[in-house]
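Comment thread on ticket #2218

A.B. wrote:
> Attaching the input chain for the structure job we discussed in standup.
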Amino acid sequence: MVKLASRGALAKALALLALATPACNHAASEPEGSPPPASSTPALAPVVWDTPGSWTTINAPSATRSGPKKASYNVPKAGNDKEEAEVLVTFNGTGDKGDPAKTYKEWFDQFDGNLGPTAKREEFTNGHGLKVEMVEVAGTYKVALAPPVGPQKKAAVQMVKNDFRLVGAVVKTPDRGNWFFKLTGPNETVQSARSALRSLLESAR
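C.D. wrote:
> Ran it. Output below, let me know if you need it in another format.
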């Protein structure tokens, strides 16, 4: 009788195993995790422009470059100036990140004094229908040589450059955010490059 009972228990175990096997096989065939669906939102197309032929490209425009800095150029010195000017192109993102007022303040704070209220300002619509704002200040320029510290976010070590000028601009797009163009350098060199910068802004698209 014991032997028959053992066979009965074995038969029940085999039956239970047969019932469980299809479920196990089905579970094993399922992927452990499905990859997230690809984003259907296309990447923002960058603003492009025509670079003046006399400028030297330091960092060529690149749609894949990370960070806010998108391009930079050197402008040949003019008159009696001892150094070149620089053009820096930045994009901080869409929405509040690209607020022109915030960027203008950062630019003006690089000069001695409160230059914002007296800055020269101009607005126009370029040849491709984009709105452009320009600002211009001149004076004593401060180049940070150390990270900013304290509540005023001022660099502990600075290089001071007299008779410097800044001509900056923002190109506003309806769906690709605001792009900033900042020309800084010795006074004569920047003034001589103003028309070239204006041509670049006119070509932005």
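A.B. wrote:
> Thanks. Noting for the ticket: Strands lie at 56-59, 69-75, 85-91, 120-125, 131-144, 148-149, 154-155, 158-172, 178-186.
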